[in-house]
Amino acid sequence: MSPFRSKRYFREFSLAMGFYVVAIIIRGAVDLEAMPKPLSLTLLFAPVLATILVTIAILRAVFTMDEVQRRVITEACLVSMVIVGMGSFGYALVAEDLCLVEIDLIWVWPALIGVAGIAQCINTLRLR
Q: Any transmembrane segments, and where (predicted)?
């Protein structure tokens, strides 16, 4: 197994996120309905393509980590999935009855990342 290459990850991740930011800015600045259909679909799905590239960069980085690093990441992702998944499920069950604000799905990914980051810090300290 090769060692984790942080420079490669940073480069791949930065390029993909840069593409995402540019795609979001362009998508928000143009009138997609006034464009030809192929161009509007390309601009519409460009951020999705960027997120796929981000995912590839993240997975490639995880696959090059040693067993301990991979365990920390995997456990953090599991904790995040359970907390965010069960939390959003529970919230959805009671939101209407309690007149709570409806939460858009766009917030699931940032919540997963945030909780995984906290869990990763805790796991790292726990395994020292």
A: 12-30, 42-63, 75-94, 106-125
